[in-house]
């Protein structure tokens, strides 16, 4: 099993990625560090499994750091993000913070910079585990609602979690109403209370607000706490609780050295692929299946014996193909791996895949 | 069934007495330009290898996977193909 703390580092500079991997691997929390050299690959990796933290550069070809952050904010609202760049201009810093990043760091140059960089990253990863809302770090929504209720406040609490906005109305410490998207009342309250992080604002009270919640604050918080416990234990299907997120077998195989993506596809059913971290899985699946099929047929015609593997390399990455029965395994490798390294790793992965 | 599988297995299909050894080049149209393969190797087989390799390379490009070098491993033969100025140079190396 891998570490519970996964960090993804995105930069188009391979040597900087390697430096980050070395530095972050020394942290006491022993994070699992993955790297991506393009925005599209980073998004594919984020889609494949949950991460604790994304560290991204800003200036990159094709998709720059701001474009990546915009997608991340929309699709992975709970993900902690750090910009780590050589650009020291305030305009960039302001724009990045406006996009909801947690930290803006300049690329470390001196030993002091490196220590600060490593300390900041560890602090963020640990904080991510504890949850909390920006502005009242380390306080959950339950804490915030309890505090406002005990002090008998009249206030409208506004919580933002990525693209979602939720509001909770309190009058003299009484819970009056809640609203989130199309939900209102207790349903909206329970939804909002399940958020682990985001931003929080205190807005003026709205005494005219019609009462939709009749339950007491303590009663609702108890119900919600029970629901959150069940979600964390993975008892609610699709709840996304920590224990419910099992690591896929392909993610396990992707831990082999130099692996960029993995894809399996049944022959003749290219649309039924499974993948981990692949940027264009549908096109890759079609290509992998048809290539194995055509070389298998060629081997038959030449009477060259059993088809075993294909190793291919190009300017951007290497690819290995193997098959077992009616299924094809396609593995993408980071650029710079030799064909011998690709072949050896492909054989190892194919053996693990078959078993 | 295991016994039947044993007899029908492709692994046990007899290999050609002598698999071709040598190299050849094909242009972007798939036409064979030069060859060091023995004359006994049918021209159709050579063209078929060239066409299959070029198809694999062009379909890889279509799938956003630009790949300029392929090594295809069979139990009795290794085919290595390198893209060169639009065409491909192909090496055949029997393993037995």
Write the layout of secondary structure elements.
The complex is a heterodimer of chains A (355) and B (96).
Chain A: E1 6-10, H1 14-25, E2 32-36, H2 39-48, E3 53-56, H3 65-75, E4 80-85, H4 90-98, E5 103-106, H5 111-130, E6 132-134, H6 141-150, E7 155-161, E8 164-171, E9 174-180, E10 183-184, H7 185-193, E11 197-203, H8 217-232, H9 249-253, E12 259-266, E13 274-276, H10 281-302, E14 307-313, E15 317-324, E16 327-334, H11 339-354
Helix pairs in contact in A: 2-3, 7-8
Chain B: H1 2-8, E1 22-26, E2 32-35, H2 43-62, E3 69-74, E4 77-84, E5 87-94
Antiparallel strand pairs in B: 1-2, 1-5, 3-4, 4-5
Overall description:
The complex is a heterodimer of chains A (355) and B (96). Chain A contains eleven helices and 16 strands. With 355 residues, chain A is of the alpha/beta class. In chain A, the strands form three sheets. In chain A, strands 6-11-7-8-9-10 form a six-stranded mixed β-sheet. Chain A has a five-stranded parallel β-sheet with strand order 2-1-3-4-5, with helices on both faces. In chain A, strands 13-12-16-15-14 form a five-stranded antiparallel β-sheet, sandwiched between helices. Chain A is elongated and about 85 Å long. With 96 residues, chain B is of the alpha+beta class. Helix content of chain B is 28%, strand content 32%. Chain B contains two helices and five strands, in the order H-E-E-H-E-E-E. Chain B has a five-stranded antiparallel β-sheet with strand order 2-1-5-4-3. Chain B is globular, with a radius of gyration of 16 Å. The interface between A and B is medium-sized, with 33 and 32 residues.
């Amino acid at each position: 099993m891998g570490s519970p703390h996964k960090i993804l580092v995105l930069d188009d500079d391979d040597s900087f990625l390697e430096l980050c991997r070395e530095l972050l691997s020394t942290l006491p929390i022993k994070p699992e560090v993955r790297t991506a050299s393009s925005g599209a690959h980073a998004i594919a990796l984020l889609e494949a499994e949950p991460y604790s933290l994304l560290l991204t550069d800003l200036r990159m070809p094709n998709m720059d750091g701001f474009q990546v952050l915009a997608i991340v904010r929309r699709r992975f609202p709970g993900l902690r993000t750090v910009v780590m760049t050589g650009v020291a201009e305030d305009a960039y810093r302001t724009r990045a913070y406006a996009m909801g990043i947690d930290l803006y760091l300049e690329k470390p140059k001196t030993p002091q910079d490196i220590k600060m960089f490593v300390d900041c990253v560890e602090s963020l990863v640990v904080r991510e585990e504890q949850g909390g809302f920006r502005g009242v770090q380390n306080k959950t929504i339950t804490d915030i609602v309890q505090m406002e209720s005990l002090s008998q406040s009249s206030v409208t609490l506004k919580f933002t979690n990525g693209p979602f906005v939720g509001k909770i109305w309190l009058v003299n410490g009484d819970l009056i109403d809640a609203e989130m998207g199309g939900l209102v009342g207790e349903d909206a309250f329970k939804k909002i209370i399940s958020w682990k992080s985001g931003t929080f604002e205190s807005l003026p009270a709205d005494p005219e607000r019609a009462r939709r919640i009749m339950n007491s604050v303590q009663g609702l918080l108890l119900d919600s706490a029970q629901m959150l416990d069940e979600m964390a234990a993975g008892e609610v299907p699709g709840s996304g609780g920590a224990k419910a997120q099992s690591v896929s077998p392909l993610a396990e195989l992707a831990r082999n050295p130099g692996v960029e993506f993995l894809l399996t596809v049944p022959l003749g059913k290219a649309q039924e692929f499974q993948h981990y971290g692949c940027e264009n899985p549908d096109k890759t699946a079609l290509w992998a299946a048809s290539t194995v099929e055509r070389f298998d047929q060629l081997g038959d015609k030449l009477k060259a014996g059993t088809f075993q593997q294909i190793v291919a390399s190009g300017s951007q990455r290497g690819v290995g193909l193997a098959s077992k029965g009616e299924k094809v395994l396609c593995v993408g490798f980071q650029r710079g791996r030799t064909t011998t390294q690709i072949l050896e790793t492909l054989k190892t992965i194919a053996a693990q895949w078959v078993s | 069934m295991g016994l039947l599988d044993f007899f029908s297995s492709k692994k046990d299909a007899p290999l050609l007495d002598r698999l071709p050894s040598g190299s050849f080049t094909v242009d972007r149209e798939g036409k064979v330009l030069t060859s060091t393969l023995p004359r006994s190797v049918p021209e159709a087989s050579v063209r078929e290898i060239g066409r299959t390799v070029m198809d694999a390379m062009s379909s890889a490009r279509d799938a956003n996977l630009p790949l300029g070098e392929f090594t295809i491993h069979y139990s009795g033969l290794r085919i290595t193909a390198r893209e060169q100025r639009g065409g491909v140079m192909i090496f055949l190396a029997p393993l037995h």
